[in-house]
Each structure stands twice: as C-alpha cells, then as structure tokens.
Design a protein that fits this description.
The complex is a heterotrimer of chains A (226), B (262) and C (238).
Chain A (H helix, E strand, L loop, with lengths): L2 H12 L2 H26 L4 H16 L2 H11 L4 H5 L3 H4 L2 H26 L3 H9 L4 H31 L11 H12 L2 H30 L5
Chain B lengths: L1 H14 L17 E6 L8 E2 L5 E2 L1 H12 L3 E6 L5 H6 L5 E6 L2 H4 L2 E3 L8 E6 L15 E5 L3 H9 L4 E5 L2 H10 L4 E5 H8 L7 E8 L2 H4 L3 E6 L3 H17 L1 H9 L8
Parallel strand pairs in B: 1-4, 1-5, 8-9, 8-10
Antiparallel strand pairs in B: 2-3, 5-12, 6-12, 7-10, 7-11
Chain C lengths: L13 H33 L4 H16 L2 H24 L9 H27 L2 H9 L4 H31 L11 H12 L2 H30 L9
Helix pairs in contact in C: 1-2, 1-4, 1-6, 1-7, 1-8, 2-4, 3-4, 4-6, 5-6, 6-8, 7-8
The chains are: A mainly alpha (226), B alpha/beta (262), C mainly alpha (238).
Chain lengths: 226, 262, 238
C-alpha cells in the first residue's frame, strides 16, 4: 500500500464530490416529480394510462442502469434527427444525459415505493376523516399523504443511497465525478487498490451521512410515543 | 427442501473455481504459457469480429512470433485503462501494442518496437484550428483514457476541454455526434476511422506530434520489470520476421505503407 | 439502422449476443446462490449472541451496500489474484502468479454484493418464524443445529422468498457492470458490437430487450416458486 499516494490523492478525489452530489440530488428531485406523474397515471381510471405507467416501470426496472445510460448517451446521439432537435443542447451534455438516465430510472422505483406507501394507509383512517366532514383534498393532504409518506420513508432512504452509488456510472460517459477522477488518477499511477479503496471510503461516508439524515427525517415524522 | 438447500450451497461453493497456479519464479525463464494482454478495440491493430474473435495486425504479428519461437500464446482481453495494472497483478505476461514511453518505463519493461506512428488530430474537414495550446482554447478534445495522448494533452492543451474515453471507438462516436471537436490519437490507427463510411467529412488535422518525451520511441510490447526471458525471445522474434519478409507480408495485408517506421 | 447486424450469420452479432445472455444468466445464478450462502451466514451472525459476530455482520452489510458496485467489482478484478497470491506465498512459500478467471471474479464480486442485500431479507425471514416452534422443537429434544437446519431455515426461506426475488433482480442487473472486466456477457457484447459497427442504438436496444426478457422470465419463475412454497398455507387468512 502506497499511503503517500493515497494521502496526496485525497484532495483530487474530494474534488469530485460536488459533481457526485449534484448528480444524485438533481436526479432524485427530478425522479420524485416524475414519479408523482407515473403514480397518478398508474392509479388513473383510464386503463390505457395505467398500462402505460406499468410498462414504464417494467422497462426501467427490468433493465440495467448502465444500458440505459449508454442507450441515452451513445444510442440517441447516433441520429441526425435527435441532433437537430431542441433537446440536443441537453442530450449533448454528458451531465444531463446521466441526470436524465438516473432520474428516469429512480422515478420507476420511486413510483412503486409511493404506491406501496399509499396501499399501507389503513382505509379506516380515511373513512374516519371523511366522517369528520373533511373535504377530499383535505383528507388527502392531512391524512393519506402523511401516513403514506411515513410508510415510504425507509424505502425511499434506501433508494437515495442506491442513487448516490449509481452516480458512479456517470464516469462511463466521460464525467469526472469521484469514480471518474479515481480512474484518471489510476491511469497515471496504476495504483488501483489505493485509489479505489479511497474512493469507496468517500462513497461510504456520503452514504452514512445520507442514512443519518433519513433516520432523522423518520424520527421527526413519527408521532411521539404514546 | 433441506437437501435442496444443501445442494444449492454446494453449487455456489463450487462456482468459485480458482485455476491452477503457474510457475514463474525464475524471471529469466520463458513461461510455458505466455498470456498476451490485448485491448481488442483498436482497429486495424486489434479488434473483434462478429464471432467475438480478436483479429488484426497485432494478432498476426504475435502469432507469427509465437509460432516461430515455439511459444504457447493465448490472448487475454483487457480494457486499455486497466492494461498496465492488469500486467502488474499478473493477469497476463505481455501487453501487446503499447507505446514505449519513459513514464511507463518506471513501472514496466519493454521489448523493441514493432511499429511506430506519430499522433495527430482528426476533425471535421470544414473546421480548422490553430493547433497550439492557445489556438485550441475552447476546443473539446477526446482521446483514449490511459493512452499517452492523454498525458500529453493534459500537460499541453491546458486551455481546452479534455475528455477521456474507454475506447477510441467511443471517441469517434462522440466526434460524429458533435460532442467533441477533435480526436487525438495515433495517426495510423485513425486511418481506420477516416477510411470508413463514417469518416466521410473528417480528416487528419494539424502537425505530427512525436516528442519522444511523451510519445516514446514506437509501439512495442510491455512485460513486468526484470522478466528478461520473455522479452529476449520476443525481440528475437521481431528481428526474425522483419528479416525474412513475414512482417512485410502481414504489414501489406493491413497497410499500403510500412508501419515499422524509421 | 441495419437490422441484419443482429442476424445469426457470419456477419451478424446475434450469435454472440445470445451467448452473452447465457453468460449473464450463468453469472447471475452463481452469484445469487453464493449470495444466499453469504447472506444466511451474515444473518445468523447479526442474530448471534456474540458481539464480535454481530459486528462482522453489520460491517459487511454496511460497507458493501455503501460503496458503488462498480468499485467493488474493480477491486475484486484487480485484487483477487493478488490476495490469493499473498496468502499462498505466506502459507506455502510459493511465489508464482495465480490466475483467477474472469468468471470466478464476477461470481465472487457479485455474490458478495448480492449477499449483503440477501442478509436483511433472510434475517427478516428468520424473525418471522414463531418462537413457539423453536421451543417445541427444543422440547422434543432436537439439537440446536438440527432446529436451525430443519425448522428455522426452511420456513425462513419461505418468508424470505419475495424479498429474495428482489435481490435476484438486483443481481441480474448488476451483471451488466461486470462488463468492465471484459467478461463476454450481454452488456460487454453489446459494447463491443456498438464500437465495431458504430451502431450503438441498435445494440444497446437489443441488450435492453435481452435483459427485459431475463427479468420478466425470472419474475414469473419466482412467482411460481412462491406459489409452490406457500402450498398448504394459502387458506390462512392474510
């Protein structure tokens, strides 16, 4: 083990953390919004809309993220029509391609997590709220959503950690986040272990921090003990 | 159910097969089996056909040497960005098709060269740059990760946006997509792209880059430091096929000019 | 786009893609089974009375689930043979190179990852088995390990089956990352073909389709397995 090299590489690797966090947070945020639409479609009264949402979830959960990233980055850019479209300024950029792939992917999982949360709301609670004369919107906002959210938080926390890890795949489309920088350092020093162990430790710390934040959120959303 | 579970566990345990150790204690001795690390994504030197075989100039040269020197050679595929670490941890004994540079000599030893090339840019025929550090300000330059063009670009083209690719093929895809302005690679290897249908509208750009401090003294094969046995045999092989015309035969199969260089 | 590139003839990549699919399946199944073994061991360690064992179990799942799969694979790819060489040298004094083939590396790395996710699922399964049964078995004079093997684990596996199905899907998709080691599974084959033909759209779409086929087929398989495992329990009210 070359500890000197490890020590010297810490600042360079930490330099990749902002990009890693940007990718993770932006895609989780976009994915959350997209997941709401997918969920709405899934629970819609129109059969075709529900089927569409189901197909979306099936495709994005059934294929590896790496394939999705390569498909969006290299696959789509193959066509002149795509390159002439108004979306090209976004698709041209590896950052937005990665963010898009990550967001589309996490949206599929998130919509299922939310659906699971909704299904866990006891019907009795909703009936009770209705019986109290609350409006539909009010029931949704003050009863259904808080209970569902409380149910969904642990799973969503897991998803957040999976996304932080998934950002490492952005290194395969030329982005220099933590893994990308690690590979770059290795290509000159050939010190595979030292650098990848260091990079692994950075992800581990990020994820431990994320875990603690989720635990905090969970605690705040739990009613005080009886 | 219980028995089935036990069988599952056994199956998983046997799935982890570790292949037999290889004797390589004496570094002056040539191993019985010589494993050649090769990228397989660098046409026309080494690439894959639709059946999944590695073919190309490098493969033909190596096979000629192995046949002549009675070496039992096998090829091991390895991405370029991990090609030297792979040699160092013993995944194979020889790297074929690697530039002989001073920086790499700190970690590995080299055979003599068996081909040589300058490095050049490839870009759109209708767009010209001034190919200096200042002139390339704002240009997006792509190259292969782990290649010596990467080292040079990082040191010299400090005002350009630099992008490393896993394979050169990906860099061409991005050149065609317009994500990068220039590809920086070995001039001879670039011909493969320029001569293909996708290379229409692109051409070699700017001067030859051949500063030996960065681009070394040609392309040879790398071995772990001190393993002189394999190196000497391969050097003999290179000399022999050069002398009796077998090299020329292979050369002419792929190129209309001599790639050996001066 | 040239669809004939996907044909099975000498000019088509269909043949290698299918071989890649077989390789993907072989790696996934082996890694998943190894993961169940590791996961069971780690679950038992986490439930152990010994603090040390609990610590080992917790460290394993926290570390492996906390770092990107890609890094775990890289570390195994470059590290396995060095590690074995170091051990062999220390124990037998043999200083040669030992090669661990790409398939074994893939199974080890993915098995380790799969195992970390299986741990929680299996632990949950074990927790679901009612204490009364264990006590009954103990009262019948069964030995501890017999109780584990015959009473606890089989039932725990039944409870764990839906969760394990999820881990399977995860493992199956993680095999795509093994492509960085050069093992010719689906993703690697698509990558090589996309580079050689400069038709990335076609080959990544084909790869996606193959993965969909595998995930869809295996989810049906697990659905069946759940039905079989729950025979005799179906009548119980949920």
């Amino acid at each position: 083990m070359n500890f000197e090299l490890m020590w010297e590489s810490v600042p360079a690797l930490l330099g990749g953390v902002p990009l890693t966090l940007q990718l993770a947070l932006l895609s989780v945020a976009l994915g959350f919004v997209l997941a709401l639409f997918i969920l709405a479609a899934r629970l819609s009264r129109f059969a075709w809309l529900a089927a569409l949402a189901k197909a979306y979830v099936f495709v994005f959960r059934g294929t590896p993220l790496l394939v999705q990233i390569f498909f969006i980055y290299y696959g789509l850019s193959q066509f002149d029509d795509v390159r002439a479209s108004i979306l090209w300024p976004l698709l041209r950029d590896p950052f937005w391609c990665s963010t898009l792939a990550l967001a589309l992917n996490t949206a599929a999982y998130a919509s299922e997590i939310m659906r699971g949360g909704l299904l866990a709301v006891p019907p009795g609670a909703i009936e009770a709220a209705k019986a109290l004369g609350l409006s539909r919107l009010k029931v949704l906002w003050t009863v259904t959503m808080p209970i569902a959210a409380r149910q969904a938080i642990p799973a969503y926390g897991n998803e957040l950690i999976l996304m932080v890890k998934a950002t490492s795949l952005a290194s395969t489309v030329t982005l220099l986040e933590v893994t990308g920088i690690a590979k770059q350092i290795i290509s000159r020093s050939y010190a595979v272990f030292e650098i990848f162990i260091l990079a692994g430790a950075i992800y581990l710390l990020l994820n431990l921090a994320a875990t603690m934040l989720v635990a905090l959120a969970e605690r705040r959303m739990t009613l005080p003990a009886r | 159910m219980i028995n089935r579970f036990a069988t599952w566990m056994m199956l998983a345990a046997t799935a982890m097969t570790v292949s037999s150790p290889m004797a390589l204690a004496d570094t002056a001795k040539v191993p019985e089996q010589v494993r050649i690390g090769i990228e397989g994504a660098y046409p026309p030197f080494n690439y894959r056909d639709a059946a999944g075989n590695v073919i190309g100039f490098d493969v033909d040269v190596m096979n000629a040497i192995c046949a002549r020197k009675k070496l039992n050679c096998t090829f091991v595929l390895q991405d370029w960005d991990g090609i030297i670490p792979g040699l160092l941890v013993g995944k194979y004994d020889v790297i074929i098709g690697i530039g002989i540079t001073e920086e790499r000599k700190k970690k590995v030893d080299f055979t003599d060269k068996y081909w040589a090339t300058a490095s050049r840019f490839v870009g759109r025929a209708d767009k010209n740059w001034d190919y200096t550090a200042e002139g390339l300000k704002g240009a997006v330059i792509g190259f292969q990760s782990g290649a010596y063009q990467e080292t040079y670009a990082k040191d010299k083209f400090t005002q350009s946006e630099l992008k490393g690719y896993q394979t050169l093929e990906q860099a061409y895809l991005d050149l065609a997509a317009g994500r990068i302005d220039l590809v920086f690679a070995a001039a001879i290897a670039e011909l493969n792209f320029l001569n293909s249908p996708d290379g229409k509208g692109y051409e070699h750009k700017g001067p030859d880059f051949d500063d030996p401090a960065y681009f070394g003294v040609g392309v040879g094969m790398a071995i772990r430091q001190g393993e002189t046995g394999v190196r000497d045999v391969i050097n003999e092989g290179i000399r022999e096929i050069r002398a009796d015309g077998e090299y020329k035969m292979i050369n002419d199969k792929y190129f209309p000019f001599d790639v050996y260089g001066k | 786009m040239n669809l004939s590139l996907l044909s099975f003839g000498p000019e088509g990549w269909g043949g290698v893609l299918l071989t890649g699919a077989v390789m993907t399946l072989a790696v996934s199944v082996s890694a998943f089974l190894l993961g169940i073994v590791l996961g069971t061991a780690a679950a038992l360690a986490k439930l152990s009375r010994h603090r040390f064992l609990r610590g080992v179990g917790i460290t394993y799942t926290t570390v492996v689930r906390g770092i990107p799969e890609l890094l775990v694979i890289y570390l195994f790819f470059f590290g396995t043979s060095s590690l074995i060489m170091a051990i062999v040298k220390a124990v037998f004094g043999y200083a040669g190179y030992i090669e661990v083939d790409a398939f074994a590396v893939a199974v080890l790395a993915l098995g380790l990852i799969s195992g970390a996710y299986s741990t929680e699922v299996i632990r949950g399964g074990i927790a679901s088995v009612s204490k009364g049964q264990m006590e009954a078995a103990a009262a019948l004079g069964l030995r501890r390990w017999m109780i584990w093997l015959r009473i606890l684990l089989p039932q725990a596996m039944r409870y764990a089956l839906p969760g394990l199905a999820n881990v399977w899907q995860l493992t199956l998709k993680d095999t795509a990352l093994i492509s960085v080691t050069g093992l010719a599974e689906i993703m690697r084959t698509a990558f090589v073909a996309a580079g050689a033909t400069r038709e990335p759209f076609l080959f990544y779409a084909a790869a996606a389709l193959l993965y969909l086929l595998l995930t869809w087929g295996s989810s049906r398989f697990f659905g069946k397995a759940e039905t079989v495992a729950n025979r005799g329990f179906a009548a119980r009210a949920k």
